[in-house]
Here is the input.
Amino acid sequence: MDIFDKELPKKYEYCSVDYLFNKNTHSESLIMSFSDDDGKEQEQHYILKDASPGDALMTILDYNTKDEDSTLRAYDQLKKLADILPVKQADSSEDLLKLYEAYKPSDVNRVVDETYSIIRSAVELSPMMITILPDVYNIFSGLYYCVRRKKYLKLFIPSISHNLNRIGEFIEFFPEVYTKAREFCENVFLVDDLFKYKVDPNDIYEQYELYCSHSSIDNYLNTPVMPSSKKMKMKDSDLEQFIGDSDWTSFYSFVCKPEVSYYGEEYEETSIFTIEDLIVDEIRNMLVCKYVFRRCDLCGGYFKTRFFTVQECCTRPYKKFNVPCNEYVSRRYYKKRTAEHPLHNAYTKAYNRLYGRIRRGTVPADTPLSPQLMELHDAYTKLYDNADDDKKNDVVKEFIEKANELLG
Ligand SMILES: [Zn+2]
Here is the structure.
């Protein structure tokens, strides 16, 4: 589906649009609610993206690309909406009425074209800009409806004004929201060494301190996504119960007190109204799933992983090598490890002797001795790795003897 299809708001005149975020699958969708020809309430879902927990946050905070610049460029694009949509007149019903009463269908088409082309290019640079779309849809479907039935325009003005206000807020506060969100995530989720290994209660305390000392806590974890969501508050006395825990499962379950959905427990989707809502929801899910962000040891990019894993590198392709960073590093590590292996040194010496003969022409280049020596090396490497420490030297000695016998 093309979400920038001009026919959509026309087709569903007059409908309301929500941006939904599925708590379990993390898929994002647009849902349009409208009345059909018989006046029956209908809903139409459009899936925008399937994603796993933390993905939206990765995208929102550019952790996938490390490219802050593209978000700022997307924001510059989106700011242009303020010239096309009358966000400054949002609070004046009279101004809005006067403006839209003069609209012809061709005017609506023009505004839709201009708006879509701006949002489309902003979304290409930064996918989170899509959160502005439901407000835009709501305005357009109202306008398409009213441009043919001018007498109803007055009824729609409060709703249009509400949507315009939200677009205005997005444009005005985006840099602030974005900066705060990045800071918060870097402090809470970007973990370099702390959680690579089993978590100590002191670490839990440190992490708790991070939560509390960082001012953004009030703006995120204490901010209800839905009106009925529980607020998370932590006091020192709350912390005491976690001291002595060997992992931080209970700490997490405390931090992530179950949300009571606006629609009741059964409802697994959340309506997202702002980027802040999306961030709050994603943060909760990061905590529930025990995800953290780490900086890749190789390329320096961010990646998402469980806090208890030892993964040090990301899975993005490394430079021109067409292999993911983590694979590149493990291959390099394997090479290094084999190069340091005492048996490898003994093998190299034996091979050099054989190679000298091949070079001098006393042994043919395709001599079976070469694969035989390799087989011997592999067999003795296994013996060496499995031998007790005080027997390892004997294994190397035996390998040297066997290699000498083989090469004569
Ligand atoms: Zn990497």
About this structure: Confidence is low (pLDDT under 50) at residues 194-205, 214-219, 221-234, 256-267. Strands lie at 16-22, 28-35, 41-49, 269-272, 291-295, 302-306.
